[in-house]
Amino acid sequence: MSGASGTPYAASVLRALLAAGESVDLVVSRASRLTLLDETGISFRDAHWREDLREWLDRGADGKPGTFEADITDVRYWNAGDLAAGPSSGSYPSKGMLIVPASTACVAGVALGLSKDLLQRAASVTLKERRKLVVAVRETPLNGQTLRHLVTLDDAGASVVPASPGFYAGATHIQDLVDFVAGRVLDAAGVGHDLYRRWQGELGGGASGQ
Checking phi first, is residue 36 left (phi over 0); if not, alpha (psi -120 to 50) or beta? Predict the structure, then answer.
């Protein structure tokens, strides 16, 4: 997680990864902690990250408690300042990396190979090891510099997934729109999910609704 607005996207992706039986290495940047506090009122603390993560994953996009029973036994948390952490090395086993949400500062850092923190370093490792890197950029409008950085990431093999909800899936709640974006992120990563209704084509001139 980087410091862009959009912590509900990250929560939806995390819930779906855990539901799919995936193990997760979680890195929360310093800026994203501030965003999480602003958007949810939750302070993400190193010493109490399990409790804070459970509380966060139980929140819906509307900020109200949900019914998700967060089993986080398959989550390993790494401090963003720990450049000696497992994900900083190409020998550390990983299928790939998702940056959700991705700020323009994070995008620039990864595109330029700055590796100023664990988030950027892990992304650089993911690219050099030719693993899947999915970048869910959350900003608008995008200036030319950021667009060039995104093209650089695309050229390097990353999948750029703007946090742009689709409305054809019949969304009726904010969470539906959040889940659509999260689902597209997971699609790019090759992770199965049922977060949104997929387009099935048209039958008889209208949407099938299936």
Answer: alpha
Give the bridge partners for 167, in sequence order.
none
Q: Say which residue the tokens 């949400």 belong to.
A: 101
In a domain, 200, yes or no: no
At 9, list the tokens: 């996207």
Q: What is the model's pTM? A: 0.92
Rounded distance, CA 103 to CA 6, Å? Answer: 10
pLDDT (tens digit per residue) in 13-24: 999 999 999 999
Phi, psi torsion values for 30, nearest 5 degrees: -60, -40
CATH number, domain with residue 151 = 3.40.50.1950
Confidence bin at 165 (pLDDT 50/70/90): very high
Tell which phi-psi region holds residue 170, choosing left (phi > 0), alpha (psi between -120 and 50) or beta.
Answer: left
